[in-house]
Amino acid sequence: xxxxxxxxxxxxxxxxxxxxxxxxxxxxxxxxxxxxxxxxxxxxxxxxxxxxxxxxxxxxxxxxxxxxxxxxxxxxxxxxxxxxxxxxxxxxxxxxxxxxxxxxxxxxxxxxxxxxxxxxxxxxxxxxxxxxxxxxxxxxxxxxxxxxxxxxxxxxxxxxxxxxxxxxxxxxxxxxxxxxxxxxxxxxxxxxxxxxxxxxxxxxxxxxxxxxxxxxxxxxxxxxxxxxxxxxxxxxxxx
Length: 239
Known about the structure:
Elements: H1 8-17, H2 22-48, E1 68-70, H3 71-81, E2 84-87, H4 97-110, E3 117-121, E4 135-141, E5 144-150, H5 159-163, H6 169-186, H7 198-223, H8 228-231
Antiparallel strand pairs: 1-5, 2-3, 3-4, 4-5
């Protein structure tokens, strides 16, 4: 006699049918979902109302050391890549569900409600919705922050190089000098003079430098721009 194979789904349904507490189970599941939705709403409100004055309680034995960063570490990447480090309430992009889930997990592990969220992102993400590589942190106190989640696209591999001139005034002047020199090299000097001595070359270079510097200064003043070191924690979006 050949025995029938056991259908686990049918066996599971049969076990449930014999359980007189099934309605109670459904109510319990519904309560779990309601509590989860309430937690999600609370966390989203905390993110929107985040402030650096918030303080959090953590069980430091449960924290992962590789996710702890000092303010100086964050400041360095913000200056190198021209990013902002601001309270999450200024962030205009969407917070992904994965970030909310990680916050829930942290709150459950440490039995604590988290506030004081911060985000590292390009300036445009604090005034426009975009997808460029935001990082979310929560404050630990004493200028230390705990990394929660990263989402979006990675930054362009040349962003650090492209943002180097804007780190400080020295870098900007060096960039203008180099560009002026290269522009002078490729400019046919015969357009301006019949002689091509060193004097004419450096005279043209001086003209190119003044022209380039004037364009940079006009753009900087017209757009209200500032150097990376001055804006990394600024919440004023036109800097």
